[in-house]
């Protein structure tokens, strides 16, 4: 997906990145470190 106009870096979380990958979520950058980790953990647990 084209994310160039979102401002902050966007991190795409996917399964099997070396095969036919499946996007399971995305986290925008620019959050305080604790908030970024919390959002990433929510995706990984979901």
Can you give me a brief rundown of this structure?
The protein has 46 residues and is an alpha+beta fold.
- The number of helical runs is 1
The profile of the biggest β sheet is: 2 strands, antiparallel
Mean pLDDT: 84
Shape: flat
**What is the count of β-strands?**
2
Helix content: 25-40%
Name the beta content range.
25-35%
Structural class of the secondary structure composition?
Answer: alpha+beta
Layout of SSEs?
Elements: E1 10-15, E2 22-28, H1 33-45
Antiparallel strand pairs: 1-2
Describe the structure.
- This protein has one helix and two strands.
- With 46 residues, it is an alpha+beta fold.
- The protein has a domain at 10-15 and 23-45.
- The protein has a two-stranded antiparallel sheet with strand order 1-2.
- The radius of gyration is 11 Å and the shape is flat.
- The mean pLDDT is 84.
């Amino acid at each position: 997906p084209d994310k160039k106009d979102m401002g902050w870096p966007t991190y795409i979380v996917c399964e099997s990145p070396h095969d036919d990958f499946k996007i399971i979520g995305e986290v925008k950058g620019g959050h305080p470190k604790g908030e970024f980790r919390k959002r990433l953990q929510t995706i990984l647990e979901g």
